[in-house]
Amino acid sequence: MKIRITTLAVLTSGLLLCGASGQALEKAPVLSLDAAQKAAAACRTLAVQKNWRMAIAIADAGANTVLFERMDRSFLGSSDIAVRKAKTSANFPFPTRTAAELSHGKDGKPGVVPGFAWTPGVVTYGGGLPIMAGGAHIGGIGASGGSPEEDEQCAKAGLDAIRDLLK
């Protein structure tokens, strides 16, 4: 009888602990498909207005592609680049432009992490932005098809469109 009571106590404690940690996970911000679709739509709208042909990718906190779309007549190679930009900004909480500065330098000064550009899958030019929600890093958005500045403007339009959803 004593063994059964002890076993029951251990199982009950385990369930309570698992339940508490499960609740904490449920409260962590997560990038939804709805938010990704809204961000991509805003990026696409800006691209159409500016006559840019973009590939747009959005990745979650695990750097898994949540959404990808390629506008008509965009460069085929832009598809892979957009995905890599999104994944780079999902893996690191800073824009891919910052990755470029870390690797290649800025204002004539050398980069402090020159080997960063050789990391597989990492993109070191503008167009990828991290997605933050309530101080948590929940993913990244990448756009490719124009100049790095145009790509970054497109990605920023996507982030601006979902800013209220990320609080």
From TrEMBL:
<dbReference type="InterPro" id="IPR005624">
    <property type="entry name" value="PduO/GlcC-like"/>
</dbReference>
<keyword id="KW-0732">Signal</keyword>
<feature type="signal peptide">
    <location>
        <begin position="1"/>
        <end position="24"/>
    </location>
</feature>
<dbReference type="InterPro" id="IPR038084">
    <property type="entry name" value="PduO/GlcC-like_sf"/>
</dbReference>
<protein>
    <recommendedName>
        <fullName>Heme-binding protein</fullName>
    </recommendedName>
</protein>
<dbReference type="InterPro" id="IPR052517">
    <property type="entry name" value="GlcG_carb_metab_protein"/>
</dbReference>
<dbReference type="Pfam" id="PF03928">
    <property type="entry name" value="HbpS-like"/>
</dbReference>
